[in-house]
TrEMBL record:
Transmembrane segments: none annotated. Belongs to the ROK (NagC/XylR) family. InterPro entries: ArsR-like_HTH, ATPase_NBD, ROK, WH-like_DNA-bd_sf, WH_DNA-bd_sf. GO terms for biological process: regulation of DNA-templated transcription. It comes from the Bacteria. Pfam families: ROK. This is ROK family transcriptional regulator. Coiled coil: none annotated. It comes from Bradyrhizobium commune.
């Protein structure tokens, strides 16, 4: 049975197709038509345009459907996107494609105590590198994605994590790359996008909460990618669990972030933060845990669970994906997170029908998250560049 076509604008229909291809990595025509609720004839007309514009490609291939060979549709590998990802130590800059392959990356170090001035200069340097690299190869960028830790609600009072003036950076980008749209987002939103688009068999397709445990602890509400509020940052890391607790970088004491971020984990393990980062994901086997440390670790994970449960009490949803160091622990240790959520939700997780999934950590893969975000921006506007600056 054919699904009825929904009234949507041309941009929305194109966005539905492109975001579906981005999240699936490619699709045959029949399931693509079904997923975006179009007849195959309508889909065919739009694919014709998208192909002519160089946004998609199609390979004739035998498909497991009645009716013989059909086209495997995927995003065009020649589309070039730029990614700028600000981390605590450096600004990562790169050029890559819609499927996540990187053709160029460079890191410009940040000073020890960054200011709006010096961070602005680092962005200037990175954008100049980007311009030189693309100009030498006559590459035209389709979209620039920039990620900044802590960007969002708190930013109007000055970014509490890394000082930076987004308006000024946007102007610099406009001077060097006229007509290339640039979009800024919170790092956590970008990591959520990265997982949604690049994690094989990502556990959720509908609305869910993505929680990222890295340098900071934060979440993103994720919804249908073509909705205006498809990605909404959630500051769940600053839920306070006791004003006697450790000082948080936000200025308060006892935030869940102050107990469970990577810097807090390093301190608990008796390592400097750089040492912990140098281990990468191997710390979980390389660093032996005493029973006291393991006990404390579980208590902190329980608090993380409480923070997630509280967030779900405010805005219920059926799925939670957790990425970050807790995903590396064995089931027994991770259970503390689940117990925390259970203790907090009225009637527990089962009654609230919340399913939980741990996805691998993605910190340290810069600028992959910014690249995924740039791809998402291009797909979400249907490949039709809108205003030159938009914040997500
Ligand atoms: Zn805080």
């Amino acid at each position: 049975m054919e699904m009825p076509e929904q009234p949507r604008s041309r941009r929305q229909t194109r966005a539905a197709i492109l975001t579906h291809l981005l999240q699936s990595g490619g699709s045959f025509r029949p399931p693509l038509a079904k997923a975006v609720r179009l007849s195959e004839a309508s889909l065919s007309r739009i694919l014709f345009d998208l192909k002519a514009e160089g946004l998609i490609e199609e390979v004739r291939r035998p498909a497991p459907y009645v009716g013989g060979p059909t086209g495997l549709v995927s995003l065009d590998a020649t589309v070039a996107l730029a990614a700028l990802e600000l981390t605590g130590q450096w600004l990562s800059v790169g050029v890559g494609g819609l499927s996540g392959e990187l053709h160029y990356t460079e890191r410009v170090p940040l000073p020890k105590r960054p200011t709006v001035e010096t961070v602005g200069r680092v962005f200037g340097e990175a954008l100049a590198l980007l311009r030189d690299w693309t100009r030498r190869r006559r590459i035209r960028l389709a979209q620039i994605g920039v990620t900044v830790p802590g960007l969002g609600r708190l930013s109007e009072f000055g970014n509490p994590i890394i000082p930076c003036d987004v308006g000024r950076i946007s102007d610099m980008s406009g001077e060097l790359f006229a007509d290339v749209p640039v979009a800024f987002t919170n790092s956590v939103v970008a990591h959520a996008t990265f997982h949604r688009c690049r994690t094989e068999s990502y556990p959720f397709s509908g609305a869910h909460l993505f929680v990222f445990v890295g340098q900071g602890v934060a979440g993103t509400w994720m919804d249908d990618p073509i909705e205006d509020d498809a990605l909404q940052p959630v500051e769940l890391g600053h839920m306070v669990f006791g004003t006697e607790g450790p000082r948080c970088r936000c200025g308060h004491h006892g935030c869940v972030e102050a107990y469970t971020s990577l810097p807090a984990l390093a301190e608990l393990l008796g390592l400097r933060e750089a040492e912990l980062l140098a281990f990468g994901n191997e710390w979980v086997t390389a660093v032996p845990l005493t029973s006291r440390v393991r006990q404390e670790l579980r208590q902190r994970l329980f608090r993380l669970g409480l923070a997630i449960g509280n967030t779900l009490n405010v805005k219920p949803c059926r799925g939670v994906a957790i990425s970050g160091w807790p995903s590396l622990l064995d089931e027994e240790d991770r259970k503390a997170v689940i117990d925390g959520i259970d203790a907090c939700l009225l009637g527990g997780r089962k009654l609230a029908q919340v399913s939980l999934a741990f996805v691998p950590p993605s910190n340290g893969n810069d600028p992959q998250a910014a690249l995924a975000f740039a791809a998402f921006c291009l797909a979400r506007c249907g490949g039709m560049a809108a205003a030159s600056t938009e914040a997500a």
